[in-house]
């Protein structure tokens, strides 16, 4: 290939600079990212991170609302644990804990005699509970029972929230009247998305609009109308869920559901040209789990053993292969949505991908920019 003259190189550089300016102007009008993925994959956590990084964090009212959500997460997880034990005829090792479990479950889930408060957060009306010191002591007693870990391992439909061990360690602080959630507390708070939630902010001269919709099966019918005018899809996968089943049906493997859903989106005619940024999320939990549970329990063809790097590489290649025939590219990032530093690094990469993809779409100059 004939080398360019100095004049031609300067002209090419000027043309590329002009294209970059034009594309940045175009992106500045609005860059719409659609967050998709199964329930509890980390979509909403990523949106919270954008609020921390680019929208001055959470207001006092939002913090108080998340305090109520955290209380409710702890109570709901405790009740789910009790229900799983009863459903499978598992007994807690202490008969007093068994009796306590029956009492709490009867009050909260059967008779529903405990008062709830309704709050509004992320465009949703949510009913919440509150924990006092007496209830906190009872909750700790249940989770500290010698049989609890065994119940969790045997009841595959019981997906204990990733945040529960963290919250239990600071439960005395959480139930205090002076408690104000910090960023980590809020990032770990679980709020099931049942409405379309939009996070809009400006960063580096670009206006971003991130649309988050519920990932549970019952919420996916809301996705299709959002497919138009999308700049890119961010698809979240909970990499550590390969040995768990969906809470919706108690039977379908979560990772298989996520993988099949990804294939459907990647091949959808309205989305074939749209770039997909794939987040293999919860890498910290995956690294811990694969040391105990082989990925082959979900994918028999996996032969890498209980090895973190082999497992991540396998998942990356499997998802990439599922999207290899589409027009739009698939870009993979291994993420931990609860880690603000990791998300900040990933977000810089996402912005570069969006700009590069926009330039590639122009069919311009080739090569990297």
TrEMBL record:
Family, similarity comment: Belongs to the G-alpha family.
GO cellular component: cytoplasm; heterotrimeric G-protein complex
GO biological process entries: adenylate cyclase-modulating G protein-coupled receptor signaling pathway
Residue numbers binding GTP: 162-163, 187-193, 212-216, 281-284, 337
Residues reported in the UniProt entry to bind Mg(2+): 44, 193
GO molecular function annotations of the record: G protein-coupled receptor binding; G-protein beta/gamma-subunit complex binding; GTP binding; GTPase activity; metal ion binding
Protein name: Guanine nucleotidebinding protein g(I), alpha-1 subunit
Pfam families: G-alpha
InterPro entries xrefs: Gprotein_alpha_su (IPR001019), GproteinA_insert (IPR011025), P-loop_NTPase (IPR027417)
PROSITE patterns linked: G_ALPHA
Superkingdom as given in the UniProt entry: Eukaryota
Keywords in alphabetical order: GTP-binding, Magnesium, Metal-binding, Nucleotide-binding, Transducer
SMART domains: G_alpha (SM00275)
């Amino acid at each position: 290939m004939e080398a360019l003259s100095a004049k031609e190189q300067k002209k090419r550089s000027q043309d590329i600079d002009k294209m970059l300016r034009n594309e940045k102007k175009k992106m500045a009008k609005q860059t719409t990212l659609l967050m998709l993925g199964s329930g509890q994959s980390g979509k909403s956590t990523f949106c919270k991170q954008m609020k921390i990084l680019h929208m001055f964090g959470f207001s006092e009212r939002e913090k108080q609302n998340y305090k109520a959500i955290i209380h409710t997460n702890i109570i709901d997880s405790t009740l789910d644990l009790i229900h799983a034990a009863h459903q499978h005829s598992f007994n807690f090792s202490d008969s007093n804990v068994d009796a306590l479990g029956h009492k709490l479950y009867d009050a909260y889930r059967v008779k529903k005699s405990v008062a709830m408060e309704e709050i509004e957060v992320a465009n949703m009306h949510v009913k919440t509970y509150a924990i006092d010191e007496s209830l906190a002591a009872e909750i700790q007693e249940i989770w500290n029972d010698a049989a609890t870990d065994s119940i969790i391992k045997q009841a595959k439909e019981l997906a204990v929230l990733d945040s529960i061990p963290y919250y239990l360690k600071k439960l005395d602080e959480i139930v205090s009247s002076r408690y104000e959630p910090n960023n980590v507390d809020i990032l770990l708070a679980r709020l099931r998305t049942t409405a379309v939630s939009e996070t809009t902010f400006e960063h580096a001269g670009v206006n971003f609009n991130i649309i988050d919709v519920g990932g549970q099966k019952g919420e996916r019918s809301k996705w299709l109308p959002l497919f138009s005018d999308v700049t890119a899809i961010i698809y979240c996968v909970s990499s550590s869920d390969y040995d768990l089943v969906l809470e919706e049906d108690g039977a379908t493997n979560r990772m298989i559901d996520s993988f099949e859903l990804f294939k459907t989106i990647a091949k959808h005619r309205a989305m074939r040209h749209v770039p997909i940024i794939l987040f293999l999320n919860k890498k910290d939990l995956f690294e811990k789990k694969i040391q105990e549970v082989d990925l082959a329990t979900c994918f028999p063809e996996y032969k890498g053993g209980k090895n973190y790097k082999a497992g991540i590489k396998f998942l990356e290649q499997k998802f990439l292969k599922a999207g290899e025939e589409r027009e739009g590219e698939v870009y993979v990032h291994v993420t931990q949505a609860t880690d603000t530093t990791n998300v900040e690094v990933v977000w810089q990469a996402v912005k570069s991908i969006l700009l590069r993809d926009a330039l590639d779409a122009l069919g311009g100059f080739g090569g990297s920019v």
